[in-house]
Amino acid sequence: MSPRWNPNPDMRTGCHVVHHLHVHLVSVTTYRRNAFTDAMLTRTGETMREVCRDFEAELKQFNSEQDHVHLLVHYPPKVQLSKLVNSLKGVSSRRLRQEYSTHVRHYLWGGHFRSGSCFAGSYDGAPLTVVR
C-alpha cells in the first residue's frame, strides 16, 4: 500500500477492507459500588489489553475510577462488538474475583462483579478528554 493512498497510520487494512473503527466503552460495577482498588484497576487494564489482543483489537486508552472503567478500543470489522464487550467484562471480572476474592465479596454479592449493562459509543479516535 502506498503512503500516498493511506496517509493515516491509524487506518488498518485487510485483504478487501480498509477500516478505522473505534468504540468508547463504559462498564460499571454492580450497584455502582466503589469496589475497585488501585491494584485491581491496574490488573483490569492488563487483562483488558490481553483480551483485546486476542480479538486482534487494540486498547488505545484505559481510564478508571473506583466504580467504573472507560475503554477506547480500535477493533477490526470482523469482530462482533457484543462478543468483544462480553469477553472484556467476563474475563476481567472472573480474574478479579479469583485474585481479589475477599475484597470483592466484601463489596459485591451474588457473584456479579459488573452491571449487566454497558455503554458503547462510536467515536473518531479523539482522546478520552474530548470524548467525555
Automatic annotation (TrEMBL):
InterPro entries: Transposase_17, Transposase_17_sf. Pfam families: Y1_Tnp. It comes from the Bacteria. Residues 18-132 form the Transposase IS200-like domain. NCBIfam families: transpos_IS200. This is IS200/IS605 family transposase. It comes from Streptomyces aureus.
